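It is worth pausing here to work through a concrete case rather than discussing structure prediction in the abstract. The textbook approach is simple: state the sequence, then state the predicted structure, then interpret. We follow exactly that order.
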Amino acid sequence: MSEAMSGKKDIVRLLRHITGHGRLSVETMVSGVAIRREGGAARQFPHAAIEQAVALGLAVRDETGIQATVEAPAFLRRAMLAPEEAFQEQHRLSETETTTIGGIRQSVRVNRLESPLGALTRLKEKSGQAFMPPEAISAGERLHADFTRGQLQPRLTMTYEPLLSTKTKGGAGGIADLCDTALAARGRVARAMEAVGPELCGVALDVCCFEKGLELVERERQWPARSAKLMLRTALMALSRHYAPPRTADRRNHSWGAEGYRPEILY
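Step two, the predicted structure:
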């Protein structure tokens, strides 16, 4: 093992020991530095690991104590990943969820910032509850998925052909060139927008499909500040009811009579 690799492992081991525990007492010895957590046994670390952690701004130390800095958790996250993922993880908001894949429930890691609605999941009410209900977020992500499958994204190159072309032959991009999956997705998007209504479908498309920020939507539509999130929540709740209609109560009436009972027929 190279000296650099060994030194990095010592720093990681040190930070895992001190991060999240406030200021810990230290005892300097010839062979290293002993750091003791409250109520726990002391662990020894090389002098070089302490010095390098301090030089990198990952820890602060004085004569009697040591404490991790606010940069330490991010360094630990990068260090625990494969080298090719380290930079990417700095720009992710990863969470672990349980989903069903092939009929088997599995744990998966989800990047919340990858979703066009990822930032909206962090909006809170004054009470501390999420501003966007989970069913609203799910509905918006489902719309985005259908929009993508339907190949409805705006093109990066200039084209004079309508987005939903009815052309059946000649040239690329016509309906004849779309697979059944894309056509079905386009139909689902059209039905969803019809269900949401003309007053609200625009903001749902802007945010969920074209991935515009709320402030940009307000500027483009000349809406008052902080109004876009209210309109979007209303649109997504309507969309969620379209995808999962509420169950209606069974209104059938049952009449019970004694043996030999015959209902009266009214003319």
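Step three, interpretation. Residues 116-243 form one domain. The longest strand covers residues 94-101.
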